[in-house]
Amino acid sequence: MNTSLSHFTPQHQHLICVDSDGCGMDTMTIKHEQAFGPAIIDIWPELAPYREKILQRWNVFNLYEITRGINRFKGLSKMLTELHETGVTVDGYADIKHWVDTTPVFSNPELTRAIFKNPDQKGLKYMLAWSNKVNERIDNLPSVGPFPNVHDALAYANQFADIAIVSSANLSAVDDEWSTHRLTQYVTGMFAQEAGTKEYCIDALKSLYPEDQVMMIGDAKGDLDAATHNNVYFYPILVGNEATSWQSFKETYADHFRLNNFDTTMQKQLINQFYTNFE
């Protein structure tokens, strides 16, 4: 299995890119409920009186609204901004919002560089501490595994298409999850946040395949945007209906893709289902 875009070698004429968290792996809900949200209270204990309100709102816009899959730093800024607008402002909020609104790259290393350049902006230190606490909490979570029907769908698709994991999570976590549940046997390449954004990874990969023979499978608008940006097909895994989505892919849409019958009409219908599912 390849983890380097520059060394990726196609084995088939078709490519299927698959997101990991919340799409292939049923890991997104537990991570937000037990890591991302609670870590806010860990770093800003003064928010404890608002704990239930914060956790509920965090889970809603990170899991069940069109903002699902939002970058963690953007999500934190959004949450703190909503609190600020209700009169609850945490220490360092202005620094956090400014960095999120202006940085070209969202990552712990980029945030670390910003702290080095601006040591007086303590909000950045709080944000890095939060991100590290999130990672620490995630490391201690149990492995939930893939959604039902993922194994069968990928086993089927692997017969005619290369499968590349394209995820914004860190590589070690993705590799561990997919290896633990014996799914890497179907994977040709695995490209996580270290390889670049989803848009960047798909752009690099699609050049190796014939036109109209690349697809992105995802559960969030960021996945759809990455596919649209690269003019490749998008197959949605619908939140709350993941097992059915994967079953339909195996039984119907995989063959349409294999036979080059996955057309614009079908694509429009699927994208409409994707948006409707968030309403």
From TrEMBL:
Q: Kindly provide the name given to this protein in its UniProt entry.
A: Glucuronate isomerase
List, alphabetically, the Pfam families matched.
Answer: HAD_2 (PF13419)
Q: Organism, per UniProt?
A: Staphylococcus muscae
Could you tell me which SUPFAM superfamilies the record lists for this protein? HAD-like (SSF56784)
InterPro entries hit by this protein: HAD-like_sf, HAD_2, HAD_sf, PGP-like_dom2
Highest taxon listed in the record's lineage: Bacteria
TM annotation in the entry = none
